[in-house]
Every structure is written in C-alpha cells, then in structure tokens.
Amino acid sequence: FGLSKISDFMPEDAQTISKGCIRAKSGTVIEDSGVREEIDRALIRQFDLLPVARKMVMEELANGQQN
Prior knowledge:
- This is Toxin-antitoxin system, toxin component, MazF family.
- By secondary structure, the protein is mainly alpha-helical.
- It has a domain at 33-67.
- It has helices spanning 19-25, 35-46, 50-66.
- The longest helix has 17 residues, at 50-66.
- The radius of gyration is 19 Å and the shape is flat.
- The model has no long low-confidence stretch (mean pLDDT 79).
C-alpha cells in the first residue's frame, strides 16, 4: 500500500491529542438541528461533488414521480 501522490502534510505537523480532549469535544448531532445539513453542504463543496449531488437529487425526484 502506498500513497498515490505527495502531499503537503509533514510528520512534524502531527500532534498527539489526549483521549479526554476528544471525548470532551465529541457528541451527538441532533437530527433536526440543521448541523447535519451544514456538514453535508460543506463536504459537497469541499470535495467538488455538486454535479454528483445534483444527479442524485434528480434521480430521487424521478423515482418519486414513478412511484
């Protein structure tokens, strides 16, 4: 297994974080809080998935009209 390309990440950039710190900041995202939608939108933009997301929505709309 190898990396497909060189990245800007350097080993000296890594930091060790205690488990307690992670536990203090983690939790559950309430479904109707709007946070999930914001995360989805951010990921779609970050990974340039807008054409894929648009296609998925159009397929769901077409399936809804067929049923």
